[in-house]
Amino acid sequence: MWITPEAHLPESRPDTLAVHAGRLEIPVNTASSPPLFQASSYEFDDLDEVERVYSGESAGRIYGRYGGPNGAQFESALAELEGAESAAGAAAGMSAIDAALATLLAGGGGLLAGRELYGGTSALVENDYRKAGVRVEYVDQSDLDAVEAALERSRPKVLYVEALTNPLLHVADLPALGRLARGNGARLVVDATFATPVLLRALDHGADLVVHSVGKYLGGHGDVGAGVLAGSADLVEPARAYLVRRGAVIPHFEAWLALRGLRTLALRMERHSANARAVAAFLAGRPEVVAVHHPSLPAHPQHELSARLYPRGTGGMLAFALAGGREAVAGFLGALRTVAVVHSLGEVATTISYPPSASHRYVDPGARASLGVGEGTLRLSTGIEDVRDILDDLSAAFAGLHGRVRATAET
Ligand code: PLP
Asked: Catalytic annotation on 216?
């Protein structure tokens, strides 16, 4: 099929031709990989078509801010992966979180959130929700008695948790949290960015809505800025409308990249998980390391829960603490060669970040310490490389640390 009327073109003058010339071919047979629809507006043949598209009778498109075919394809893929009725793509993970909270809390009601929230989420909650009058409370999401007591006391409209927390990888007991939320009239919203739907389908375990920062594992290559939320249509559609009103739907190219990322998600998560397990075991045997936080280790507080909820593993994230605090961290980071210092996560490459300077920079040191994030804590996002090269790089950095300590002692 050829689109763009060409009949009038031969008579047109060069300036007009420059604007209109060129035929768009839409092949009648389906492309085996998704075409990119980088169009911000669409044409209508006549007013009848305008009516049919606006009313939803025809599956036409109107305008980029309302979403495009690539966004819709990514959303349908994500909904299928999550086992959700509906999904809405967003400009960022934060837009997806905002849309979920704003629409669930419309008309009043409080928010009870896990206290180990991603920093951007707590900034949103404190600056935009608490200041707008929303009652906000935090709770240790691993302490089910405390969660139950807070739900009974405050009767919030939303319970918001992270499936795997940043950076200590605490595992949310979603079935129990879902029961508690339902029993107290609250909706459970789960940020499953660290987990992904191939390792954990949050909706199957009691969540009402699941949200993701798509630029992490779903995209997987460190080149996407987007978010998504998924759940039942009665919760997702108001959130989609909220995103459209704010101009925060997923952009076409980001959706195209995100879908490309999804194609290899299962393979990548398998390798991320296996590599993280190996790195955690290696770190647990190092004398320079005073703590390792990874659910595969028997000492992890939710070791058994994680085996039940995450039979395929928990992805690439882990945290560890170096003896020697900030000074040791500086030496260690400076000695790494393959592992890059990056303040994001979930990429194919192994990256490391220092929470006190990055994700927890604006949390005061006392509060950081009470969360278990000390001056020696590092967060590793284990990539999909040959794990022997990751271990070699970490080993060399530990060796460098000793050289540095010796040099300091000698001077
Ligand atoms: N949730 C988690 C767990 C994150 O780590 C991040 C970002 O790092 C976000 C949400 C926010 O996502 P975005 O940066 O795409 O807005």
From this structure: yes
First vs last Cα of the chain: how many Å apart?
A: 77
Question: What's the CATH number where 273 sits?
Answer: 3.90.1150.10
Question: What does the alpha-carbon distance between residue 79 and residue 348 come to, in Å, rounded to a whole number?
Answer: 23
Q: Which of 118, 168, 212, 379 to mutate to test the pocket of ligand 1 (most atoms within 8 A of CB)?
A: 118
Asked if residues 111 and 129 have their Cβ atoms less than 8 Å apart, the reply is yes
pTM of the model: 0.94
β-pairing, 209-213 with 187-191? parallel
**Of these residues, 42, 52, 65, 135, which one is catalytic?**
65
Q: Tokens 């999401």, residue?
A: 141
CATH code for position 222: 3.40.640.10
Beta bridge partners of 112: 137, 159
User: Which residue CA neighbors atom 6 of ligand 1 most closely?
Assistant: 213
> What pLDDT is attached to residue 188?
98
Over residues 129-149, the pLDDT tens digits come to: 999 999 999 999 999 999 999
Nearest CA to 83 out of 262, 170, 209, 182 is that of 209
What pLDDT sits at residue 104? Answer: 98
Query: CB atoms < 10 A from the CB of 363, how many?
Result: 17
pLDDT for 223? 97
Catalytic residue list contains 131: no
> Quick check: 250 and 226 in contact, CB under 8 A?
yes
Please give the pLDDT value at position 362.
81
Q: What are the strands of the beta sheet with 340-341, ordered from one edge?
A: 289-293, 317-322, 377-381, 351-353, 340-341
Residue 118 Cα to ligand 1 midpoint, Å, equals 7
Low-confidence stretches of the chain (pLDDT beneath 50): 1-2, 406-411
Beta-carbon contacts of residue 32 (< 8 Å; ≥ 6 apart): none
pLDDT at site 403: 63
| Distance of alpha carbon 12 from alpha carbon 4, whole angstroms | 14
Tell which residue, 252, 283, 287, 290, has the closest CA to residue 350.
283
Read off the tokens for 355. Answer: 């929470």
39 found inside a domain: no
Active site residue 65: yes
| Dist. CA 155–CA 139, nearest whole Å | 13
Same domain, 166 and 289: no
Give the pLDDT of residue 363: 82
Domain, as residue range, for 312: 265-410
